[in-house]
């Protein structure tokens, strides 16, 4: 049996939640005040995911950088690989909000999209 | 002299939403003055997500949230000038501004909305001893350098202050390859959202030291390290708890101050607690026809509420410009913040001019668990709402209904306080 301690992010209360795990399965969730805490804890211990936001170099634009994000959340364990994948790429201006910058980032099936408009210089 | 119905000082989230709202309420000649080279304000550097859950029912990044409002302003064909700095505003609403193309110029406005936002508290405000080496930045400056200019301020980082900007920058610097050694917080609790503590610190194993502060800065040319110490209940460093951290960068995330030099210049009455103007139910300052909204009025934690507040200011400015305001200001009601409530916005209500509903925003002074927000009409308790938790970092609000205030005869004071029972 493995014990995991989490802080719930659902509201400012920030309940300390204790999750008991048997192999990959959740045995019990304790310490949460509401149902949202239970849901959060189960997802966080079995499949934690995050939206990753960063910037990518722009060529010939009115700005040097365009801000980007993963279109959907990706596994938490892939954040660093995702950042590495963005390190050496650049895009040609113009760029519009929602433009796909990189498809299927580190094999997650999720695209990197622009979150800012950059005009051609 | 240029003539406009409405001049809005600042093209950030507050200014944009105020402009859109004024136009939708029929104001024709609107001008937004923005000192940066683009609209959107500080949202442009806030590339993380989590914006707009209330307004758009989805999680946007800062630039995307700003982008939505910039689109609206452009669709509504609202005029704006970039790279333009407002130098002075007079009581009779003459705005003196300057930019490189036009030099110094004057605008006569019928109404003005102040939407200048806020500024970060700096090292000088903290009196941290030590030399003044390179490498000490406010968190927001570092955020702009990394996210907009493309420069990394340093490699080994200590962050003082656990407000949201500090937490967000801890993650951002880490993702960009820096080593964030520790985040120190003077208070015994963090001023940031739980979500940010988990996703910006815990995710990357960055320690958060509560009740700690920086007591020394080491390095002459470039920062070499800082000394942290634990503090007692009064915030004074405890001798013997000093710990040295080598680092080349110190980020300060130690609070925001509304940027009100212009407001003071006009002679507007100020509220010492918020460092923003005193406003009435219409978000109108002590000078008729000059309104304020967003972080220049009081520092918000959610941009959604800034947009909402700015919408109200835009609408009220439009009623003022079109001379459509309800007549009379006989019945004035004071809003009194006490016992745990630090301030309220607005600070008073002209009952005749109040809309059917009014949102009153406020902050509490400490962390309260299982306590009540209580509202008294003169001596009588009219609202008693239980909250599982309240903290200084989270803005609270209550709604007032005009009909209820009218029913209460000769109401003079509305008191907002926190009660344990």
Fill in the keyword field for this structure.
heterodimer, A: 121 residues, alpha+beta, CPE0013-like fold, 2 domains, 5-stranded mixed sheet, 3-stranded antiparallel sheet, 2 helices, 17% helix, elongated, B: 421 residues, alpha/beta, FAD/NAD(P)-binding domain, 3 domains, 7-stranded mixed sheet, 5-stranded parallel sheet, oxidoreductase (chain B), FAD-binding protein (chain B), FAD/NAD-binding_dom (chain B), oxidoreductase activity (chain B)
Written overview of the protein:
- The complex is a heterodimer of chains A (121) and B (421).
- Chain A has two domains: 2-47, no CATH class; 53-114, CPE0013-like fold (Roll), CATH 3.10.530.
- Helices cover 17% and strands 37% of the residues of chain A.
- Chain A has two helices and ten strands.
- Chain A has helices spanning 35-46, 79-87, and strands spanning 2-7, 16-22, 25-30, 49-50, 53-59, 65-70, 74-75, 90-92, 100-102, 112-114.
- In chain A, the strands form three sheets. Chain A has a five-stranded mixed beta sheet with strand order 8-5-6-10-9. A three-stranded antiparallel beta sheet of chain A has the order 1-2-3, covered by helices on one side.
- In chain A, strand 5 (53-59) and strand 6 form a beta hairpin.
- The longest helix of chain A is centred in the middle third of the chain and has 12 residues, at 35-46.
- The model of chain A has no long low-confidence stretch (mean pLDDT 92).
- Chain B has 421 residues and is an alpha/beta fold.
- Chain B folds into three domains: 1-120 and 255-324, FAD/NAD(P)-binding domain, CATH 3.50.50.60; 122-254, FAD/NAD(P)-binding domain; 326-421, no CATH class.
- Chain B has eight helices and 29 strands.
- Chain B starts with a strand and ends with a strand.
- In chain B, 48% of the residues are buried.
